[in-house]
Amino acid sequence: MNLAVLGATGSVGASTLDVVARHPDRYKVFALSANGSADALLKLCQLHKPRYAVLSGVAENRDLRKQFGETELLFGAGALEQVAREAEVVMAAIVGAAGLPSTLAAVRAGRRVLLANKEALVMGGALVMEAAKRSGAELLPIDSEHNAVFQCFSGGKGVRKIILTASGGPFRSTAPELLTKVTPDQACAHPNWVMGRKISVDSATMMNKGLEVIEARWLFDLPPERIEVLIHPQSIVHSLVEYVDGSMIAQLSNPDMRVPIAHALGFPERIESGARSLDLAALKSLSFERPDEARFPCLPLAYAALRAGGTAAAVLNAANEIAVEAFLAARLPFTAIARVIADTLSALPAQPAAGLGEVLEADDRARRFAASRVLARAA
Predict the structure, then answer these.
(1) pLDDT tens digits, residue range 258-280?
(2) 200-204, long-range: CB within 8 Å, 24+ apart, which pairs?
(3) What is this structure's pTM?
(4) Under CATH, which architecture does the 2-141 domain have?
(5) CATH number among 3.30.420.40, 1.10.1740.10, 1.20.120.450, 1.10.3210.10, domain 157-255+293-378
């Protein structure tokens, strides 16, 4: 199978290429993309020798194209959609709203899509799922939580609810009054996972889990009241499915993204991931607790957006991206992230999301409003 890795220079892209390199007889790297990290992308191309490379955030540059040699270098967001349509398998690992158009292009082309970009379903869940139904595209979740549910779901028959686990991030036991002085480096110091800075902040606020609740609604066709979140600090149980007979099935592994990536790449077969085996005898305990909504106000905001429907989730996601960007740039306190999101949701009520245009328009309005709230708080 030929594979396009969209977002190849990120942590998920690196894990994907690690798994692929273990199975050269099964996979051929067809295309790799990055937003603007030309040097990092060039090194990956020299190693994996794809047919195409894409710099989606860079304008046409002939001199840069020459450096890539036999790999044809393409530029701009449209090139992402081109390679997404042409590859047999697409790893959709671009962070944020920027990943939606290329993910949707792959789905409309009927490809196998390994979905690491949760924002595609958060913003345009109905659009993506309807496109998959029409084209016959295969959507396989890569988030460890959704992949765990997928492994335990048994076709969805007799399911009472699903339980998404969350580590609780670096501030699980921090007194709420101390969170106002949190620094970006502290927020990005995840206790269990190695991730990019944006998703690390989302984990610290638990917005990451809120986005996963919305994603789960579309992947597994369950209403929000049947999607539960529990904090599990050890990050060993990645999610659980409870059935109507009282049975509960869980998926366990060490916290290593190569596990869900290998599962999706090989599905329905099982292939070697490179992850370390789980030593059950060495585990001292596995604990679970309900999230404190006072400490993690982003989580109830996500549930509220899911219940509102329409463009509300796109507004939520856009406001979060703007607020997190401002926090990482030291322009917004950590505790103000949730306030900016709440203000934006209140100011921009949900509208029908009939097509990609409506979703992207809602995204743009939310970004502009959230940016104005950031400026107002900085003034």
Answers:
(1) 999 999 999 999 999 999 999 99
(2) 201/324, 201/327, 201/328, 201/337, 202/320, 202/324, 203/166, 203/167, 203/169, 204/169, 204/170, 204/171, 204/334
(3) 0.91
(4) 3-Layer(aba) Sandwich (3.40)
(5) 1.10.1740.10
